[in-house]
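not sure who needs this but someone in the group chat was asking about Aminopeptidase from Octadecabacter ascidiaceicola so here u go. i didnt clean anything up, its just raw.
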Amino acid sequence: MFQTFEVTSSPDTGPARLAAVRAEMSARKLDGFLVPRADRFQGEYVASCDERLSWLTGFTGSAGFSCVLNDIAGVFIDGRYRVQVRDQVADVFTPVHWPEVQLADWLKEQLPEGGVVGFDPWLYSVGQIRDLRGKLDRTGIKLVGHTNLVDAVWEDRPAPPRKPICIQPDELAGERFEDKCSRLGTALEKDGLRRAFIALPDSICWLLNIRGSDIPRNPVMQAYAILDWTDHVHLFTDAKIDADVAAHLSDEMDLVTTYPLNDLAGFFAKAERATFQIDPATTPQAVLDLLEAKRAVDQSVQIVEGPDPCILPKARKNAVEVGGSRAAHLRDGAAMVRFLTWLDAEAPKGDLTEIDVVTALEGFRRDTNVLQDISFETISGAGPNGAIVHYRVNEDTNRVVTPGDLLLVDSGGQYLDGTTDITRTIAIGDIGGDEKTCFTRVLQGMIAISRVRFPKGVAGSDLDALARYPLWLAGQDYDHGTGHGVGSYLSVHEGPQGLSRRAKTPLEVGMILSNEPGYYREGDFGIRIENLIVVREADAVTGCDARAMLDFETLTYVPLDRRLIDATLLTRDEQAWIDQYHSDTLQKIGPLVDGSALAWLQAACAPL
């Protein structure tokens, strides 16, 4: 199994660990210290050695941070984790609703006389520190870069990963890495730049057509890179590079020079007559500090700001990558249908647990014989556990899937040709009318995104409300974005594209996103429905002044639970969309399954 179910943290450990950090603060004359859930590569998913927030507080969510002061230790979490955090942290920690409460405002309230707050400059981006310092200006609160206090007291901290790199073949990448380096290097030269610093491992993997295994569920290695205007790449990593990967990187053009990760500081120290571009959104503050120290003694070194040169090209999937994603989703869809066939047969017996569900689903994906990993920890939440948005079942929380429950299953697979992510909410036995009504509203929001047409230049923030409108009419909502970007056998969460209020990047052809509205009733049930979609050129329409438009192609084909749909709430167009989706699902997935799975699929795809 890729997924395990052991309890990885406990509230009981929090008080002693918090006391140890505070002792370090006192010894170093700090009034506070920031502990993010981040690594020095600004990743959402981190290696075990970088799980500082979980180690300190017990909170295991994928986003959040703590601010430890002498008299209070806040754990800042967004709407996805407000139920979870209460179960995971001891009462020495204070949950803080973020972003409603901003860190700067909280610090002003807690340190009215000012103070010195430390942070690890490798774990915060230039933009984050600049923004926070700006908000603390003239408050008497000083933010200072510091060695990591958690590392100082974490005695059994795991070693950093040093796992092998592998090649992503050109026939799956759709473009030779030499050609990527050439076009991005040419763009640097055109802009009068000589070097661009790249902090994101998935950007580096995309650029060089390689993949790694340093981070669970994400096929990336821990690395930094510097792209020269001459197309040359300086790669800093401790991951293992075998002879085949070395030959791939050198090739006949010898485009890549590799260094140990810790050689980055020495590289900057030796640099001369170079202009470095850094992305303030992804570059660690420590890197800017190194560059500014070099510039202080050598004015020939300059620093400019600009976006990661890989960020948009990576998001705009080429035709090969989109084709690979289609193939991965059909394969994954067939595995999901076999799983749902099994679930419908076994769940009504009342013997299944949430762990049984996760184990079975991973087994059906493994049966494809091409699964590389799951793309994230499978969420299997029955009844009230489904209301915990990013619930991870473990041996302590494992719940029996009981007739009358809604079961929320959010899962995905990593395949060489694509990354999948799908959520289905399933009726276990007879379900109440209120649950069906809420499910139908969520479904209406998902359909709205699936059907929308929009002009070029529209961003995800412009579309997000479409998914919420049916819920808003009932005074309901959900506290997460409607969708995130997805990589091509890379990170299941990829920027800058998205469907949320914060997603300001215009959507472009080839961008893959999730479409996943939801509704959660604490202590009762949770509902989420998720398909992946890809931006494409919309078919032309006839009519006066018709403009060129974009729309979404659906990639995910797995039946929706018709038992939860209240057709009386649907418009004729919504009913037609569901029937067409199910017809397409049967046509695409039917040839990939047989026996009881095919019979189940045929019944699940019947017209409303």
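also The chain has three domains: 11-153, 166-314, 316-604. if thats useful
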